[in-house]
Model the fold of this input.
Amino acid sequence: MDEATRTRIFKAIDQSISPAEFDRLQDAIEQDDEVLTEYLRAITLCESLSEIAAGQSAAELTAPDASPGRVPQTESMQRSVARRFTFGQLAIAATLLLTVGSVAFWLGQQRNRTTHVTDLGEQTEPTRESQIAGHATLRRSVDLKWPAHGSTYRDGDVLSHGPLRFEEGVAEIDFFCGATLIVEGPAALHIESDWSVEIARGRIRANVPPAARGFIVKAAGSEIVDLGTEFALEVKSENARVEVIDGEVEIRGGEYDGNHLLTGQRQWLKGSDTPESLDGLSTFDELQRRRENAASERFAAWQAHSHELRQDDRLIAYFPVAGTAAGRVVRNEAATGAGLDGKLVGPVDHATGRLGSTSVGLKFGRPGSRVRTRIDGEYPAFSFACWVRIDSLDHVYNALFMSDGYETGELHWQIHNDGRLMFSVMVDDTQKVRHFSELEQREVETAGLARVYYSEPIWDISKSGQWFHLAAVYDPAGRKVVQYANGKQVGSQEIIDKFYIEKLRIGAAEIGNWGQPFRKTPWFSVRNLNGTIDELAIFAAALTSEEIAMLFQNGKPLGY
Amino acid sequence: MDHEPDREQRYSEFVALLARHDVSIRRFVRSLLPSRDGVDDVVQDTALECWKKFSEFNSDGSEDSAAGFIRWACVIARYKALSWQRDKARDRLVFRETVIERLAQAAIDGLDQQELEQSAIESCLARLPDDQRRLILSVHSPGQSIAAIAQETGEAARRLYSKVNILRKRLLECVQQRLAAEVGNG
Done:
């Protein structure tokens, strides 16, 4: 379809189309099925975008920390369904037709529908199982350079159906069937399924274990079916050849249909060139070595930045876990000293950090996992920044850094299970605040006046295992709360008078969990992080977005 | 014969079906009208007409009959959309009847794909870089009229509009690819 038609479609949807153009669009819809389909799809897209946007912008002023029992069910999907449901007028019109009892029933349905969809029982769709589209994983890479236009991926990302191109570097790709490709750039692939890939350009070494026997690589009009172990392939614009390193492959289609190649045998699929073997190809060990070297360079660079950062006199505390030794204490390297050291409590394990095998992270994952510290004093502002690898958001609220309890001036930094970052400060713990609880369908009273500042969603299950640099800046003087993910702003909200507070505190606090030592019942809210933290810095000042971006740049792992 | 209790039960059944398919009906109507204007009116007329004719619709409470309901309701909605546009033809741009017929047929044929399409849109959106996703959602959020941006004549508005269109085209391509892949993988 030509660009002009596409543009016309959007102009029509946006109501900015001229009558003459509208006529041409109508002609095209009538004459061309492709335009017809595209028009309908564009309408659906724009409607969906509006619904998703409406769902996201629903303002929220509640203070979830004050009522741990409250479990909001409002996934964005349900929120948007609720907003769309506006049969109010029909309800009025219906009174003409129906008995009073029926209308009451109708209205009851409406109320349920607009507030809490799951109450509708059999009328609701079953909870949708989470799904990700994809056929392979980019397991690791070295020095990848992505083209200016097209998709880019990070190590650990799931690769979906479609093209994968890069200009330089080496990537190791694990297909879900078990086959592994090492691809040297410049490369252009088209991932077709768990079992097949087409190579338009690139040098490839394919390793196919017994479980993946039958894996198909398409190149130069032929299919190379691996019958076990390892082969190499080189595809250029003018020629293409395959060489079996170990085992056997079968060639299907094209000129050499039916040929079997055994260990050491080569075949030109297209054109021909030098008779040399393909032995210049990267091996798995080599890739590993190159990666380790690159990782240790990155690690050394980070250490230099980290030493510099320790001199920053705005630091309240700094835990550069990645560069520390294993032990049950995590050291505060800021000038504020050892009094603020964190103590590992319960099942907190040392895991690999974000900067390769020499770096260390703290793995949280169970309800009793926590690192405790105590930070006294009053502060005019807060900036929190950490590197975290989120494995899953198991709980409604998942802790990053939380003051014990929730008293006036104290903060909570956590992640909602819908992927939004949350930062909040208790403004006045003596006030009682009434708000409408969606769960209980009534007004409830909670202790304390606080506002939760949410970012836009930054995480979903497809990001599991990726490292994120997260930051929150709480700036009472500047009257704003700004949140960041990987150096980019993902939320900025004003601190209005009602929620203004001058003196901020931390007190006894936890990394990766929430301590409630003075609760009056044996029950506690489960908020442990399921993931790894390998660096955390807390500043008594509002860092600028340039400074946050710099922290991200100085600390980012390979492939970012 | 006393119809009242029977009628009550039929009504609950009707409301349940309508509630469940509201979104689909609304989308269907939207795709037949040139803009969102009139969607509420047509959906309301459709719902009333559906209730009047509900006795003609054979429902046995099964999944099949639920799927049948949406098709049945869409046929009614098509007539309502046609007559709404007939009324408005003099004072605004509306689709020709032949175009509405084609759109309606294609949209009814596509009802089965709705869920797939929705999840394709969500995952394509998730794939966009953060700043682009923010932009596209912000111009589509309630109260923000992309139409207003499109009609402005300033250089900045034009640039913004063309940026938004590039993103929408990219999303459409992505959705297209995903749906094709879905069919391909059975």
Summary: The longest strand of chain A covers residues 420-437. Chain A has four domains: 3-56, 74-115, 136-282, 314-555.
